[in-house]
Amino acid sequence: MSGTFYADPISEASKYGINVVADSTTNPILKNDESGLIKKDGHVVTMYINPNDSLERQRFTMAHELGHFVCGHLDNSDTMFRDSSKQYSRDNYDFKEYEANTFAAEFLMPKEKIDFLLYSAKKTTVEDMAYALVVSYTAMKIRLQNIGYIGEY
């Protein structure tokens, strides 16, 4: 495995021509409880991220917003997605949000990298894997549950 071990959502967004902006505190676009937003204005796509969130939350939010773009959610009828912390919950089912969350989890925590951490790097705790992939403990735990590596606890 060469280069940076963890996924870089900013570099990935730039490959698609998406502008990534830390939301302004003086003239905010995001509402108080929102982590991110992706907006299409003509041919310009901009992702706004809450700079007050933790690095792990910002990375998941960027990957989630990128998921909306890659999954084709920004068509002619939907030109913007606002995402609050509630939309990252497993209890909040909306297919487009589910799809964006799945994209984010697979992008930030691909099974191949998890396998490398487990079998080659001997990182066997959720905490160690989360740290290596720069994601939250909760996101890592859910990903491991979803791929069948751990049960719900």
Give an account of the 3D structure.
With 153 residues, this protein is of the alpha+beta class. 42% of the residues lie in helices and 15% in strands. The protein contains six helices and four strands, in the order αβββαβαααα. A four-stranded mixed β-sheet has the order 1-3-2-4. It is elongated. It starts with 8 loop residues before the first helix and ends in a 7-residue tail after the last helix. The model has no long low-confidence stretch (mean pLDDT 88).
List the main descriptive attributes of the protein structure presented here:
153 residues; alpha+beta; four-stranded mixed sheet; 4 strands
Classify the helix fraction into a percent range: 40-55%
SSE series? HEEEHEHHHH
- In angstroms, what is the radius of gyration? 16 Å
User: Biggest β-sheet, characterized?
Assistant: 4 strands, mixed
In terms of per-residue confidence, which ranges show pLDDT below 50 for 5 or more consecutive residues? none
Number of strands: 4
Tell me the structural class.
alpha+beta
In terms of topology, how is this protein built?
Blueprint: H1 9-15, E1 19-22, E2 34-41, E3 44-49, H2 55-70, E4 80-84, H3 95-108, H4 111-120, H5 126-133, H6 137-146
Parallel strand pairs: 1-3
Antiparallel strand pairs: 2-3, 2-4
